[in-house]
Amino acid sequence: MGLIGQPTDNVLLGKLNDLIAWGRKYSLWPTPFATACCGIEYMSVMTARNDLGRFGAERQSFSPRQADLMIVIGTICLKARPVLLKVWEQMPEPKWCISMGACASSGGMFDVYSVCQGVDEFIPVDVFIPGCPPRPEMFLHALVLLQEQIQGKQGVAHERRMFIRREVQQGVNAEWQSKQAEEIVRQQQGQA
Amino acid sequence: MTKRSDRELLREQESAKYRWESTSPEMGMYDEAAQSDQMILNLGPYHPAMHGVLHNIVTLEGEKIVSVEPHIGYLHRAFEKLGEHYTYHQFLNCTDRMNYVSSPMNNIGWLVAVEAMMGIEVPKRAQYIRTIFNEMSRIMDHLVSMGILGVDCGAFTGFLWYFEERERLYTLLEKHCGARLTTTLGRIGGLKDDVLPDFVDDVRDFVKRFSKTWVDFDTVLTRNRIFMDRVQDVGAIDAETALSYGYTGPNLRATGVSYDVRKTNPYMCYDEFDFDVPVGEKGDTWDRYTVRVREMLESLKIIDQAIENLPEGPYCIEDPQIRLPEKKDTYTSMESMIHHFKLIMHGVPVPAGEFYHSTEAANGELGFFIVSDGGEGPYRVHVRRPCFYYYSSIAELLQGASLSDAIATISSLNVIAGELDC
Amino acid sequence: MAVEIPKPKHGFRREMSFLERLYLPAIFKGLRVTIKHFFGHRWTIEYPDVIPEAAPRFRGLHVLKRDEEGRERCTACLLCMYVCPANAIHIEPALATPEDQDQYTEEKYAKVFDINMLRCIFCGMCEEACPCGSIYLTTDYETADNDIDHFIYGKDRLMEPEGSPLWFKE
């Protein structure tokens, strides 16, 4: 079983990996570490309008030992940091982490003595969600991104995001585009 | 997946770095308790029944609580310190995040305080719209707090219905103010934007729908014996003790003291509306529940009256020293441009001095004490947040109660961590 | 009063009637109301398939606008940087040379315009403070990302394409 989860050339094991990843991504058990404002928006993610159950993640696990997704929701102060770390350490592998909201991701507007400037300082975060607080749809978008990451592919959610930004990018910055073109030429020359 | 092994490495490094922080300072307590029959239980900071990061160290003897030691500071975000660095307008963002269950109300409380300090008169229309949003956020707050009380007592269904109404309020706020939760809807002297033309219809729809949901929730929960047995005579506090702790708001009214800042010291235009102040008898969890649930109806009454008599007129004061000029004028006229720059850089003219003003927030009396030296921002801000006073009385409230009652009591006090630690 | 506000039936009465003491009638009454809700409206959104539109006033991702001739409106006055409560905006002003003057409205322009979207709290104060209608908050909200380095939005991602419709928020 030690091979499972490792990249492999073996066809059988590779397929098994895909199957396990597929099972994992549709049965995430989140443990919400809710501290502040974003917790109220997370409540709204759980309730009827946004229904987390559609993504197979409706089983809110308040015990970290039976969970594989940690959602850090809201400001983490220096006093709450060891608590968060303890909860994270209790979770069994494989585990993932979503940091919801500006405060959890970077400290947000609270650049003060008592607030931890982003939980990625001490736990590995897979998906960041900006916004103060983010809309429930933004959380669902992050969840879809995470599911795609668990499967090891970049799928619809990633493409849609790229599409939205491409609309803004198109033809915007002649400087940037010419730089890209130069780089391609340079690469081709290097290869030649 | 090679990424996992990197993560493991990182985790080990970081956990070694912070391990010394994880050891609890109260280790001696556990040894003492082990020698007697008592047991020490940490309720929180990460506990499914604690709303937000509240921490209570509970000493138990069997099921009975011997003593409670409440801890605060898990969500200390230094609002008061930030206030010293912000202008009066920027501090609005802090007030949004204080009591995040009803953020428009905190905004309005701050604005009313600053306006009273400056001694300016806000147009009638702005005051009416503010009143409507104020009462809406009071409903929003009680929806969550009482819905959660139901959840803590085992009734999940009503919470889902209540939250649906809350979602409708979110949609309304998003449509007219631009954000779901942290609206930043007001500016000193009025509102940021005027509401859209279909505001009246939206609010009427809401009032109509909410009346129905209220009746449904009431039918399902209020007279259910299981719920009544869970909350009656639980966590009672008498009026004298409550006053000595500094209780205000619904929790004080539950004990039988009819104190409401909207009645005793009317601000904005609350003296023009007809509404009652529900008052309880014993001050237990049942009274707190009933007072809050009935307050929602009083808020509905106020919204209904305000929306029927919504006056026309400007939504913000017409003073170039206080109000930002129209965007069109800023682009074209030099004078407006100068006012614009001056207002953004130097802020509104607030006289030097000390000032205290309080409003009736959803949880109680929310007061702002402002010291100004005449600069662009406050020299010092102190917030009188109601939750702090409720939470300090928890040790006395829970003495002798059973553990399951403690959960219902803390839930009914509606302590919001963001406001508590400020 | 336009809408009839319901009157609380029971008030603060603590005593239970005989029926209430029996447990069961209350449960059946509750079940009746619950079952009534089965046949109500559909309320759940279908997010990944159908993306709900945010309200026009919603404050989402920022965009930097151009004027009718396709020039950048931003003149690097730094008001948005000054007013931002989260210090999320970083601007480096520069002077335009005569050759590229046709790209900018004034002789001063923003050489670097970065917004840290993770710091940003979307309060809309930059939009309010901008004296030349350059920075606006759009209704775009799908911004989650796996990589923390992607959240510094530079000018290449903030500036709108040339030839976009002219647009002012009221």
Pair with the biggest interface: B-C, 61 and 47 residues
* Protein structure class of chain A: alpha/beta
Q: Mean of the pLDDT scores of chain A?
A: 79
Proportion of beta-strand residues of chain C: 5-15%
Gap from first CA to last CA of chain A: 46 Å
Oligomer: heterotrimer
How many strand segments of chain A? Answer: 4
Percent range for β-strand residues of chain A: 5-15%
Radius of gyration of chain A: 20 Å
Largest sheet of chain C: 3 strands, antiparallel
Read across the widest sheet of chain A, the strand sequence of neighbours is: 1-2-3-4
Question: Which percent bin holds the helix content of chain C?
Answer: 10-25%
Tell me what you see in this structure.
The complex is a heterotrimer of chains A (192), B (422) and C (170). In chain A, strands 1-2-3-4 form a four-stranded parallel β-sheet. Chain A has helices spanning 11-25, 38-46, 81-90, 102-106, 136-151, 156-169, 174-191; strands at 30-34, 69-73, 96-100, 127-129. With 192 residues, chain A is of the alpha/beta class. Mean pLDDT of chain A is 79; it is low at 160-177. In chain A, 45% of the residues lie in helices and 9% in strands. Chain B is mainly alpha-helical. Chain B folds into two domains: 19-71, no CATH class; 79-420, Cytochrome-c3 Hydrogenase, chain B, CATH 1.10.645.10. Helices cover 54% and strands 11% of the residues of chain B. Chain B contains 19 helices and eight strands. In chain B, the strands form three sheets. A three-stranded antiparallel β-sheet of chain B has the order 1-2-3. Chain B has a three-stranded antiparallel β-sheet with strand order 6-7-8. Chain B has a two-stranded antiparallel ribbon with strand order 4-5. Chain B starts with a helix and ends with a helix. Residues 17-25 of chain B have low confidence and may be disordered. Chain C contains five helices and five strands, in the order H-H-E-H-E-E-H-E-E-H. Chain C is elongated and about 90 Å long. At the A-B interface, helix 2 and helix 3 of A face helix 1 and helix 7 of B.
Name some characteristics of this structure.
heterotrimer, B: 422 residues, mainly alpha, Cytochrome-c3 Hydrogenase, chain B, three-stranded antiparallel beta sheet, 19 helices, 11% strand, globular, C: 170 residues, alpha+beta, two-stranded antiparallel sheet, 5 helices, 19% helix
